[in-house]
From TrEMBL:
<dbReference type="InterPro" id="IPR038765">
    <property type="entry name" value="Papain-like_cys_pep_sf"/>
</dbReference>
<dbReference type="GO" id="GO:0005814">
    <property type="term" value="C:centriole"/>
</dbReference>
<feature type="domain" description="CEP76 N-terminal">
    <location>
        <begin position="10"/>
        <end position="69"/>
    </location>
</feature>
<keyword id="KW-0963">Cytoplasm</keyword>
<dbReference type="Pfam" id="PF24656">
    <property type="entry name" value="CEPT76_peptidase"/>
</dbReference>
<feature type="domain" description="CEP76/DRC7 peptidase-like">
    <location>
        <begin position="286"/>
        <end position="416"/>
    </location>
</feature>
<protein>
    <recommendedName>
        <fullName>Centrosomal protein of 76 kDa</fullName>
    </recommendedName>
</protein>
<feature type="domain" description="CEP76 C2">
    <location>
        <begin position="96"/>
        <end position="182"/>
    </location>
</feature>
<dbReference type="InterPro" id="IPR052299">
    <property type="entry name" value="CEP76"/>
</dbReference>
<dbReference type="Pfam" id="PF24654">
    <property type="entry name" value="CEP76_N"/>
</dbReference>
<dbReference type="InterPro" id="IPR056289">
    <property type="entry name" value="CEP76_N"/>
</dbReference>
<comment type="subunit">
    <text>Interacts with CCP110 and CEP97.</text>
</comment>
<dbReference type="InterPro" id="IPR056288">
    <property type="entry name" value="CEP76_C"/>
</dbReference>
<dbReference type="Pfam" id="PF15627">
    <property type="entry name" value="CEP76-C2"/>
</dbReference>
<keyword id="KW-0206">Cytoskeleton</keyword>
<comment type="function">
    <text>Centrosomal protein involved in regulation of centriole duplication. Required to limit centriole duplication to once per cell cycle by preventing centriole reduplication.</text>
</comment>
<dbReference type="InterPro" id="IPR028926">
    <property type="entry name" value="CEP76-C2"/>
</dbReference>
């Protein structure tokens, strides 16, 4: 038994917010410091896991958490938990059910919960750059058959991508059920259940593979040239495991963190873009990240962005698909498409947030007929898919501009069996499918971060001008007047609507005296490293002209505005400006 998919994400967000509200992490830090200071000898300042758990229990922290977050086994109106992440009540993916704290799921019910605990290891350097080190799925249910509900495991973490066969370290894990189960299961029962699930999963995956091969043979028989089209049925994840592409997409509700589909597109756009590293020459490295790995490192390839955006648009009730094809010069690419109820086809570029309306051209029209010129960068399309459907393009040409996106017309789009897709991609269908995590609220204080970056940039500009033998005079009022422009730029990026420009220009005209010249340069980043941003700005001749401005009565201004999004992603807008008296 499990939570309905449409409820899981919102429930997880509520739990994360509740734990943040209780300041659990802060209380743990206080107890850590107090325990080390008061209870350990000066020559023994190492605090073991047992010492910490005892300290937490003695001070009632764990009891407080469990009173707020627990399990229920009542009617269908009180859904049972859908994943095992209740075992780690401080984990970002906790799916505990809030109740009166008197009941929790029994051991038999918990044995039926097949979701693994997904652990992602991230390395962050001194500049804030993240690297995905390892991704591991932990089978936690062995603890259900352990004595006293406590067990210890040792797992080997393997690398990712091209290093998926290389060990990166050993992780010692201690699992403990809290509150303790009233009745534990025998280890034989647990092992039998796990073996049956693995056997069932293997059989489902085998049957789907047989079906996929047959579908591909039929697709090639339609037209031999189909062999060169980008029809992607399977894709390797970060661990080098082949998964059906449909399993990378699932309706994802953002709760109250994102309000509109366009805001969701902006959120996906500000997540960093990074192609999977390739060792040596050759083509593009194959690596589609699971959602948790993508969110943890806050960057990924175009497929990762497209899968996340498609999942969010599905959550908003749109008919969305991931498109696999090529851009200019035949470069493989993935983007998102939505089909309106009126037949309107809209392309969403997940790397930029841009939207394009598709109007197909008719190759049979006479040359004199005016044909709409496509604005989108896409050239060919091989297939489209979401969590329920997979369709291969079997039109005579795979050029996007001539494609007709009537997905119900099997003469143009060859569908896969929805039942076959459901057998391996539906939630809970197989134990090998990674669960989708909820989106977490940003931990960045936008005002504080904006001020910090702005102060750092002022210092960097002053030092740069000093090296050039120039003095620097900042004008705070002029800096403040730049704020509306930055807000307007972000609003336009999100909604494609320009607003507020008239008021900004009027304010600047009033602030710049007659005979003076005003120059401004806005720029946008998705990171918060002031020194890196400043170096980038100096590479622009327009920005360098402002920063190195010479003249009479030179006044400089800089304004930084950080806009936060879920998962601590952010859009950072910076505007440098100067005003000076024109001297002929």
């Amino acid at each position: 038994m499990s939570l309905p998919p449409e409820k899981a994400s919102e429930l997880k967000q509520l739990i994360h917010q509740q734990l943040s509200k209780m300041d659990v992490h802060g209380r743990i830090r206080e107890i850590l410091a107090e325990t080390i200071r008061e209870e350990l000898a000066p020559d023994q300042q190492h605090l073991s896991t047992e010492d910490l758990i005892k300290a937490l229990r003695r001070r009632g922290i764990i009891d407080d958490v469990m009173k707020e977050l627990n399990f229920v086994t009542d009617s269908v109106e009180q859904e049972l938990p859908s994943s095992p992440k209740q075992l780690i009540c401080f984990d970002r993916q906790s799916t505990l059910k809030k109740s009166d704290g008197t009941r929790m799921a029994d051991s038999t019910t918990m044995l039926s919960i097949s979701d693994p605990i997904h652990m992602v290891l991230i390395k962050t350097d001194i500049f804030g750059e993240t690297t995905l080190v390892a991704s591991y799925f932990l089978e936690w249910r062995s603890v259900l058959g352990s004595e006293n509900g406590v067990t210890s495991l040792t797992v080997e973490l393997m690398g990712v991508g091209t290093e998926s066969k290389v060990s990166v370290g050993i992780l010692n894990i201690k699992l403990e059920m809290y509150p303790p189960l009233n009745q534990t299961l025998s280890q034989e029962v647990v092992n039998t259940q796990l073996a049956l699930e693995r056997q069932k999963t293997a059989e489902k995956e085998r049957l789907f593979l047989v079906y996929a091969k047959q579908w591909w043979r039929e697709y090639l028989q339609i037209r031999p040239s189909h062999n060169s089209r980008l029809v992607k049925i399977f894709a390797q994840d970060e661990n080098g495991i082949n998964r059906p592409v449909c399993s990378y997409v699932k309706p994802l509700r953002a709760g109250r963190l994102l309000d509109t589909p366009r805001q969701a597109a902006r959120f996906v756009n500000v997540l960093g873009y990074e192609r999977a590293p390739v060792i040596g020459g050759g083509g593009k490295q194959e690596q589609w990240c699971t959602l948790l790995a993508f969110l943890c490192r806050s960057k990924g390839d175009c497929e990762d962005h497209a899968n996340l955006l498609c999942s969010l648009l599905l959550g908003y009730g749109l008919e969305a698909f991931v498109c696999v094809g090529t851009k200019a010069k035949g470069v493989p690419h993935a983007w998102v498409m939505t089909c309106g109820t009126d037949g309107t086809i809209t392309f969403w570029e997940s790397l930029t947030g841009h939207r394009y309306i598709h109007k197909p051209t008719n190759p049979d029209e006479p040359p004199v007929a005016e044909q709409p010129k496509p604005l989108y960068p896409y050239r060919t399309i091989g297939c489209v898919f979401n969590h329920q459907m997979f369709l291969g393009n079997c039109q005579p040409s795979d050029a996007v501009e001539t494609c007709v996106f009537d997905l119900n017309d099997e003469s143009k789009w060859k569908p896969m069996s929805e039942e076959a897709i459901k057998s391996v991609c539906a939630p809970g269908a197989t134990t090998s499918l990674p669960p989708f995590p909820p989106l977490c609220a940003s931990t960045i204080d936008a005002s504080v971060t904006s001020n910090e970056i702005e102060m750092q940039l002022r210092l960097l500009v002053s030092e740069h001008r000093k090296d050039l033998g120039l003095t620097t005079v900042w004008e705070d009022q002029l800096s403040y007047l730049l704020s509306p422009a930055l807000a307007s730029y972000e609003f336009e990026r999100t909604t494609s609507i320009s607003a507020g420009n008239e008021e900004f220009q009027d304010a600047i005209r009033r602030a710049v005296p007659d005979g003076h010249t005003f120059k401004g340069f806005p720029i946008h980043f998705v990171y918060r490293n002031a020194r890196r941003a400043f170096a980038t700005c100096l590479r622009s001749p327009f920005c360098e002209e402002i920063i190195c401005c010479r003249g009479d009565q030179v006044r400089l201004a800089v304004r930084v505005r950080v806009f936060t999004y879920p998962e601590s992603a952010c859009a950072v807008w910076i505007m440098f400006a100067c005003k000076y008296r024109s001297v002929l």
